[in-house]
């Protein structure tokens, strides 16, 4: 506990420990592999727990700052959509 004084008025405040994950510490979550929107193209990156791997695009996705939002952002990309469609129809992926 600490004491603050403003114009002769004393105010007491408590220090509170917050249980918050610091930004920049997001990592791959195995539960994502069960979600319909991800399971056809998502894999865990073997080399880095702070990354995911898009099997369709053959690309690593950095999860550090955005976490699952990085997957959603990647998934909305035009090239990703084309690669996923080509995987589903067994066609050669576009360049």
Shape summary: globular
User: How much strand content do the residues show?
Assistant: 15-25%
By DSSP (H or I, 4+ residues per run), the number of helices equals 2
Report the uncertain regions: 10-14, 16-21
- Specify Rg, calculated over alpha carbons: 22 Å
Strand order of the largest sheet: 3-4-5
Total beta-strand segments: 5
Count the domains.
1
Order of helices and strands: EEEEEHH
Could you give a quick summary of the protein structure above?
The model is unreliable at 10-14 and 16-21 (pLDDT under 50). This protein has 2 helices and 5 strands.
Descriptive account of the structure:
- The protein has 95 residues and is of the alpha+beta class.
- It has one domain (29-95).
- Helices cover 20% and strands 22% of the residues.
- It has two helices and five strands.
- The chain has a three-stranded antiparallel β-sheet with strand order 3-4-5, with helices on one face. A two-stranded antiparallel sheet has the order 1-2.
- The chain is globular, with a radius of gyration of 22 Å.
List the defining traits of the structure above:
2 helices, 95 residues, single chain, three-stranded antiparallel β-sheet, alpha+beta, 20% helix, two-stranded antiparallel ribbon
């Amino acid at each position: 506990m600490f004491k603050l004084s403003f114009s002769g008025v004393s105010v007491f405040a408590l220090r509170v420990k917050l249980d918050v994950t610091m930004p920049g510490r997001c990592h791959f979550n195995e539960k994502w592999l069960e979600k319909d929107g991800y399971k056809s193209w998502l894999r865990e990156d073997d080399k880095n727990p702070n990354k995911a791997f898009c099997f369709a695009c053959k690309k690593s996705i950095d999860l550090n700052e955005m976490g699952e939002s990085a997957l959603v952002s990647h998934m909305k990309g035009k090239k990703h959509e084309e690669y996923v469609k080509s995987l589903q129809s067994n066609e050669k992926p576009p360049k």
